[in-house]
Amino acid sequence: MPREISLAELPGLVGQDVGVSQWITIDQAMIDAFAHATHDHQFIHTDPERAKAESPYGGTIAHGFLTVSLLSTMNYDCVPVVREQTMGINYGFEALRLISPVRSGARIRGRFTLTNVRFRGAAMCMTTYDVTVEIENEQKPALTATWQTIIQFDPKDRPEDV
């Protein structure tokens, strides 16, 4: 997949896998930093000894929302940039499921399939992606989501045929 595309090319990518990100290691330091930022210090995330003894996971796991928050990084890593874009906006999720826990030390990556492109108004384009966050050497993904983003652009750059 090219690193950069035009607005006019975007609708032609619907139905295609548009990117697979690099692996990201979810280590205990990242989990602890997220716990600190969100004030979520539940032991299954922040206390390796207790999590090993008292949880079914054999140690600490990442917060589900930590995994969700890394979608932007994964997207930037692998989804083609639209040349005419002046700003990108996270619009939200139609669906989001946290399927499997991500254990401390595991590596994850995102797989993005463009499922819809809809031009709105003179200077906005809504994109919808089916996203799967895979856990290395695991059969089940960490999460699946239907994610919507908005591409803003200068109205003069709007393709004529949309």
TrEMBL record:
Q: Where is the MaoC-like domain?
A: 14-130
**SUPFAM superfamilies hit by this protein:** Thioesterase/thiol ester dehydrase-isomerase (SSF54637)
**Which PANTHER family does the UniProt record give?**
MAOC-LIKE DEHYDRATASE DOMAIN-CONTAINING PROTEIN
Protein name, please?
Nodulation protein N
| Organism encoding this protein | Rhizobium oryziradicis
Family matches, as InterPro entries: HotDog_dom_sf, MaoC-like_dom, NodN-like
